[in-house]
Specification:
The strands form two sheets. Strands 5-4-6-7-3-8-9-10-11 form a nine-stranded mixed β-sheet, with helices on both faces. It has a two-stranded antiparallel ribbon with strand order 1-2. 31% of the residues lie in helices and 25% in strands. It is α/β, with parallel strands linked by helices. It has one domain (3-214, 229-235): P-loop containing nucleotide triphosphate hydrolases (Rossmann fold, 3-Layer(aba) Sandwich). The protein has helices spanning 35-50, 63-71, 77-82, 102-120, 133-136, 140-154, 179-183; strands spanning 3-4, 19-20, 24-29, 54-58, 86-90, 124-128, 160-166, 186-193, 196-204, 214-219, 222-225. Bound molecules: adenosine-5'-diphosphate and magnesium ion. Residues 29, 31-37, 72, 218-220 line the site of adenosine-5'-diphosphate (ADP). Adenosine-5'-diphosphate binds next to α1 and β10.
């Protein structure tokens, strides 16, 4: 089986060398646990180390914030964007309020994403964050349907995908709406129990993986996981 090396220090060791190619991985965690940084680093390392083109779809903030966030890490995103190895797209929820039915608008966005993936030949795809759909569609049944359709459709693209989901922070809650973890082939959970950050691979279809919790740090170089160190499950709050 082919694997995608994330390039995030310490992570690939936890999943026997990399994420199974073509899988769809849910990255879950409470606010401020490092999901956006992790997702950016996945795209950045892929482009820089492996020349894998990557598409970063953001549903929150604005493009300025994203660039600013990456500059924070001294990652030279600009030159990789110029080489078409990184593309950033803001899925525009605001304009989707009007006129067309929600389903049609989702189809339109999926079409745009699919086109961008083809344009740069993306091997890596990020959607940050699926939880934003909750702001946009209020009725729970409709929301679940849309989320299911959206995340499922992304699986047809020829990419290895990371979807982030913002939880309330409970250690056994892996997605905001329950749908995301159901669709995903893998689930990686990030925790922040001040002052300690930790990561846990909850599931990864098609490969063996670490069953313990590992500490990680965020610094100017981004995320670094100490794959050889372990944290007790009981220590996570
Ligand atoms: N340069 C840095 N060095 C150390 N920690 C940082 C740095 N930049 C951001 N952080 C930490 O990362 C957190 C934000 O992570 P982020 O990925 O945006 O979280 P999430 O997307 O899960 O809400 C900040 O609250 C801060 O604690
Ligand atoms: Mg975020």
């Amino acid at each position: 089986m082919d694997r995608i090396k994330t390039g995030i220090p310490g992570l690939d060791e936890l999943v026997q060398g990399g994420i199974p190619e073509g899988s769809s991985v849910l990255l879950s965690g409470g606010s401020g646990t490092g999901k956006t940084i992790f997702a950016m680093q996945y795209i950045y390392q892929g482009a820089k180390e492996f020349e894998d083109p990557g598409l970063f779809v953001t549903l929150e903030g604005n493009l300025k914030n994203i660039t600013w966030n990456m500059q924070n890490f001294n990652w030279d995103i600009k030159s990789l964007q110029d080489k078409n190895l990184i593309k950033i797209y803001r899925l525009n929820l605001d304009s989707m309020r009007h006129q067309r039915s929600v389903d049609e608008q989702i189809d339109k966005e999926l079409e745009i994403i699919s086109q961008m993936v083809q344009e740069i030949g993306a091997k890596r795809l990020v959607v940050d964050t699926t939880s934003a759909f909750g702001v946009w569609v209020r009725e729970e049944g409709a929301l679940r349907g849309i989320l299911y359709r959206f995340t499922n459709a992304l699986k047809d693209l020829d990419c290895t995908t990371v979807l982030t989901s913002e939880t309330m922070g409970g250690k056994m809650q892996f997605s905001a709406f329950g749908v995301e973890e159901f669709v995903a082939d893998g689930v990686i959970a990030l925790y922040f129990t001040p002052p300690h950050r930790s990561v846990f691979v909850r599931k990864m279809r098609g490969t063996n993986h670490s069953k313990t919790v590992h500490p990680f740090d965020i610094s100017d170089a981004g995320i670094k996981i100490s794959s050889k160190d372990e944290i007790m499950w009981e220590a996570i709050k």
